[in-house]
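Entry for the shared binder. Reason: the reviewer on the internal report wants the predicted structure included alongside the sequence.
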Amino acid sequence: MTKKYYKICYLSGNTLMSYADGKLYNIDKNLPITYKLDQWNYPNFKDTKLMVFDSLENAQNWLSQDSVFPNRNNKIFECEVKNPTKRSIFLRIVFADYTCINKTLKMCITLKNKKKKYSQLCYQPPKGTVFVSALKLIKEVKI
């Protein structure tokens, strides 16, 4: 039996968007990812990952704690994934850093590749987060 994973998106008009939406803070236009059903979706930035949850319960718990986007048209989708891993870079980007997200990503990847410390730029991802190289939204889960 194939492991099930869950992705949180939101519906903006007729478009499924990534939960992390740069439009809110007028930041890098490449940050939000547009997802399509039944197609493989990939990160917008080289050497980065997409995030999913390892259980429906963890995805629902994350949404129930949402204080930034509580009234948005959030959706949870069951998905297939490629190359799941529990460990990856999870940036701590504060509002002032949003204007330089590309620079911050490149710096973290460079430090990681040089085996140097970059933990001051990172924080613990939500419980049950799994990092993947690609994902395919299969079906919406009613919440």
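Summary line for the report: The chain has two helices and eight strands.
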